[in-house]
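W.,

You were right to be curious about this one. When I first looked at the sequence I had no strong expectations either way, so I just let the prediction run and decided to look at it fresh. Below is the sequence, 259 residues in total, followed by the output.
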Amino acid sequence: MKSNTAIVVDDLTFSYGSRVAIDHAAFSIERGDFLGIIGPNGGGKTTLLRLMLGLLRPDGGSITLLGAPPMKTRGSVGYIPQETNLNTSFPVTVRDVVLMGLTGRRGIGRNFSPADTTRAAIMMERLGLTPVGNRPIAQLSGGQRQKVLLGRAMVADPEMLFLDEPTASIDTSGEDEIYDHLRLLNKTGVTVVLVTHNIGVLSRYVKSVACINRQLYFHPDGRLDQATINKTFGCPVDIIAHGVPHRVFHDHTGEGDDG
């Protein structure tokens, strides 16, 4: 029977040499969740993501991804890393890059089938990329390139999608468009795990939140209090959305700001 649990992290620890990056973290999410992971630079966000994908091996504790160890199930997930290996100077088209997402299924060195081409075309249409399908990647804006990478990650219909700062280098309008696509994907049942530096955007899209700065604080209902944010970042942090400081998240007690 298929488990409804997407991720279980239990007493997870990881260090880079003598530096502890993650200290006894624990949380779990169900399939269909939209998890936002926030924290300061160097706080362990990307490390946690790589551990959940099986790209790093824990020093202690365990991780279950879709009911099994990540090494066995990561073929069922899509991943957009913070820094991609996409060479924008290489003469590759948008369609070519989206098709690359089917390489794992088709196999390296084998030609794509007509069904693969149709699948890529459907994904490009969904993301509004059809008009630029034959255009070289180098000619696209940062926001368009991110949509291409999203298409590459989603064309094989993964059950989960992991993204590490997917909007770090694009403008606000492009950022909103990417998040809107992620929300639509989530509504179709895709579990989304998102690392982001943008605290303000979380309240509009995510269902649960993990705050990490070596230690992890998990909020399954997506509600944060100011004290937790301050503790995570190590100093008071103004919650800002679209340039306007205001209280985006609710506190747990319903009694207002406790920071």
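Here's what jumped out at me. Residues 238-259 have pLDDT under 50 and may be disordered. And, maybe more interesting for your project: The longest helix spans residues 172-187.

Coffee later to discuss?

I.
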